[in-house]
Write a structure and sequence with these properties.
Blueprint (H helix, E strand, L loop, with lengths): L19 H11 L4 H7 L11 H9 L8 H11 L3 H13 L11 H11 L3 H21 L1
Helix pairs in contact: 1-3, 1-5, 2-3, 2-4
């Protein structure tokens, strides 16, 4: 799937058509981080993967059909000084039309449960919601 990125006319207030990952790169450039500086910093220390200035520019102006690889994401995280998790979520949104929601303040067990519930049909979700709400009511009543 290709995530098309169009360049809105300069000086207009039109919303950006950039994909989420492309937008992160463009935003960094808009804040003064040049593509050359991004490229200089875009290295995955573990694998040695480096991202070139033309590749970074292409991610914004004409994104490839496939998302960057995990090694490229690590290099891009270094270039933009953002977390890999944020870049992975942006790549998922741009190339897979998948919106990830971060659960802050919970342990991995809760994340697994929520992830499991996310794939259930609505009828199953209603059943689980009723069980969770009943448990919460019983807990409050026993306090």
């Amino acid at each position: 799937m290709t995530a098309a990125a169009t360049d809105p006319d300069a000086g207009t207030d039109e919303p950006s058509n950039l994909g989420a990952l492309s937008r992160l790169i463009q935003d960094a450039n808009d804040r003064g981080l040049s593509y050359q500086k991004m490229s200089d910093r875009a290295v995955d220390q573990e694998s040695g993967t480096k991202l070139s200035k033309p590749y970074l520019q292409r991610l914004v102006s004409n994104p490839p059909a496939n998302s960057p690889s995990p090694k490229q994401i690590k290099a891009l995280a270094n270039a933009l000084n953002v977390s890999e998790r944020r870049l992975k979520a942006a790549a998922a949104a741009q190339w897979l039309e998948y919106e990830a929601t971060e659960l802050a303040g919970y342990n991995d067990e809760v994340r697994i449960i929520v992830g499991h519930l996310a794939g259930m049909p609505e009828s199953e979700l209603r059943r689980w919601r009723a069980m969770i709400e009943a448990d919460e009511r019983a807990r409050r009543e026993s306090e």
